[in-house]
Amino acid sequence: QVQLVESGGGLVQAGGSLRLSCAASGRTFNRYGVGWFRQAPGKEREFVASISRSGGSTYFADSVKGRFTISREYLQMNSLKPEDTAVYYCAATPKAGIYMTSSGFEYWGQGTQVTVSS
After folding, report:
1. CB 50 within 8 A of CB 92
2. Can you tell me the distance from the alpha carbon of 27 to that of 53, in angstroms, rounded to the nearest whole number?
3. Residue 118 and residue 103: Cα distance in Å, rounded?
4. What confidence tens digit (pLDDT) does each residue in 6-57 have?
């Protein structure tokens, strides 16, 4: 069983940056694809970004493209906006390929809060 723990969330002003980390207990990420999702109050969980198991492919939601980057260990968020405020979840899969939906990932973290003030 893979247990994921996110860290790095917090409060930041609009235009600022945060780096979210995702750690897997007892394992390294070199055999897992990783995705990030977020859920704002009153909204459904939505896809943010993902990276394939090989690390060779990445995919971003249009709303974060050009501002966020991803590796298997972190999500770098730049030029943050108030609409980025949400709980951010890390997810992982041992499957090859790249996934942009929740169903593509078997393992999930508990989430970390990101709040962007205007």
Report:
1. no
2. 14
3. 33
4. 999 999 999 999 999 999 886 666 789 999 999 999 999 999 999 999 999 9
